[in-house]
């Protein structure tokens, strides 16, 4: 990250706190719903990473290799959650998760 001129987001404490709260809520709902949230989160992260991969210049092999491995890992996590019995989340929940993700990614550019 630093090598490419980046820095940690000042919002990291909020992201981690929100993730912990969502994880605790999902865990309280039981394994199948917890795994459902995990699978959907990983699918959405995979889609986000794919959009970055699509925008990377072909000659940026270093960034492409890192993003590609992250993508493979995320898809693998989603597949594993489904294999372990993940429930399919209702569409409104998926849309709410996607909306919150957009708010987070837009906000991080301003802070």
Model description:
By secondary structure, this protein is mainly α. It has a domain at 30-105. 77% of the residues lie in helices and 0% in strands. It has four helices and no strands. Helix 1 runs antiparallel to helix 2 (31-55) and helix 2 packs antiparallel against helix 3. The longest helix has 25 residues, at 31-55. It is globular, with a radius of gyration of 15 Å. It starts with 11 loop residues before the first helix and ends with a helix. The relative contact order is 0.14. The mean pLDDT is 90.
The amount of helix comes to over 70%
How would you spell out the order of helices and strands?
Answer: HHHH
Distance between the termini: 17 Å
| Overall spatial form | globular
Number of strands: 0
| Beta-strand content bin | under 5%
Please state the average pLDDT score.
90
User: Unreliable segments (pLDDT under 50, ≥5 consecutive)?
Assistant: none
Class from secondary-structure proportions: mainly alpha
The largest sheet is: none
Compute the number of helices.
4
Taking all Cα atoms into account, the compactness measure Rg is: 15 Å
Highlighted features:
single chain, 111 residues, mainly alpha, 4 helices, globular
Quick overview of this protein structure:
This protein is mostly helical and 111 residues long. The protein is 77% helix and 0% strand.
Question: Strands, helices and their partners?
Answer:
Elements: H1 12-28, H2 31-55, H3 61-83, H4 91-110
Helix pairs in contact: 1-2, 2-3
